[in-house]
Amino acid sequence: MSQQINLYNPAFVPPREWVTAKGLALATAGALAVVILGAVASRMNESRTAAELAAAQAARTQAQAALEAARAQLAARQPSVTLKAQVDVARARYALRERVLAATQLNLAEPGGGFSRYLSGLARQSVPGLWLNQVGIDASGTNLSLAGQTLRQEAVPEYVRRLKAEPAFAGKSFAGLDMAAASATASASASTPGTAPIAVSPAPTSGTGAGVAPGPAPATSAVPAPLNFSLLATRSTPGEVRN
Fold this sequence. Notes:
Shape: rod-shaped
Radius of gyration: 55 Å
Number of domains: 3
Distance between the termini: 180 Å
Number of strands: 7
Order of helices and strands: HHHEEHEHEEEE
Strand order of the largest sheet: 3-7-2-1-4
């Protein structure tokens, strides 16, 4: 009969040493390498961050300098005198047009026909040897100024009497008659202050009607020199004696 005998004795197995000088040196070297790599990476990241911060600060400084320069330039800039004058002129023209528009609308809304009734009345009446060069009507449409020329002094009162027969001139008082020789045309034919010329009545032709262009009568040896005249037509006040 066979029998197995264990000849292995654990006491004869050499013990394993976990901590040795070689292992400790390897572990220390590995840890040191990790620390060095981490420090290098951190340093590189810090350098990159510092560069970005420096660039941002430089851009901020440049933008702030540009802002200060713009503020200084704006503070030193003076308003343009020419531009201000142009604006003032434009505003004045706008205000004038608004007033003219308002006066025109008021005139158009007037039941009596506004300016047109006066012009129609002037067109219906003519006196031989008399013609108008200028008609002025103020913005309210109540006051008129007439300026023209005549070959006969007595033609002016006759013309005034005919105008008074027109419904448009009812209640009007004609005054301020001024007559002068034709040499004073510039001063006698000027419209009165506060009125604006809106129409020119035609000059007569052959002494029987209205022509198509204002101006002095044809100069002939038999025709006397024309006289300039001007007069005003205003609204009569109560108790006033009409001319």
